[in-house]
């Protein structure tokens, strides 16, 4: 198998980065057949990686074609529940495990994750249940996400604004 990509987008989600950087989940990823893990830690501190049987690379941000290539070719994406990150993964038909950030006020992330799970597009968990959830996302039979057609809303906006 190829690689897993962990992403927090432009945010700081220290709990996810700390959870995924522990020996147990990294060893679980190796056991599941992943050869490498890329950890995009965003605005938070770089993770301290223990001695594990899997190659791990971390970085704060990556933009442009390198990021697009990394994202489009990941066998598994472990992500915060930001709408942009979720939709990017699903539109690229990537296997997606969303990790809920419980420290957010007015937490819309759980609502988005629940709605997408209800449609059978992804699995979600919390930082403290990450290792167990790696098994379930690997075994899950998920449905493909079909992106909408932006031409319809573009047409309506042009009509509305007389463009």
Mean pLDDT equals 90
Specify the CATH architecture: 3-Layer(aba) Sandwich
> What can be said about the biggest beta sheet?
6 strands, parallel
| Spatial arrangement of strands, main beta sheet | 3-2-1-4-5-6
Rg (CA only): 17 Å
What global shape is seen?
A: globular
Weakly predicted, low-confidence segments: none
**CATH homologous superfamily heading:** Glycogen Phosphorylase B
Continuous helix count: 7
State the helical fraction.
Answer: 40-55%
CATH topology: Rossmann fold
N→C terminal distance: 49 Å
Q: By helix and strand content, what is the structural category?
A: alpha/beta
- Strand segment count: 6
CATH class wording = Alpha Beta
Strand content: 15-25%
Order of helices and strands: EHHEEHEHEHEHH
Q: What's the number of structural domains?
A: 1
What does it look like?
The protein is an alpha/beta fold and 163 residues long. The chain has a single domain, classed as Rossmann fold (3-Layer(aba) Sandwich), CATH 3.40.50.2000. The chain contains 7 helices and 6 strands, in the order βααββαβαβαβαα. Strands 3-2-1-4-5-6 form a 6-stranded parallel β-sheet, with helices on both faces. Strand 4, helix 4 and strand 5 form a beta-alpha-beta unit. The radius of gyration is 17 Å and the shape is globular.
Blueprint of the fold:
Layout: E1 3-7, H1 14-20, H2 23-31, E2 36-40, E3 55-59, H3 64-73, E4 76-80, H4 83-91, E5 96-99, H5 108-118, E6 123-125, H6 130-139, H7 150-160
Parallel strand pairs: 1-2, 1-4, 2-3, 4-5, 5-6
Helix pairs in contact: 2-6
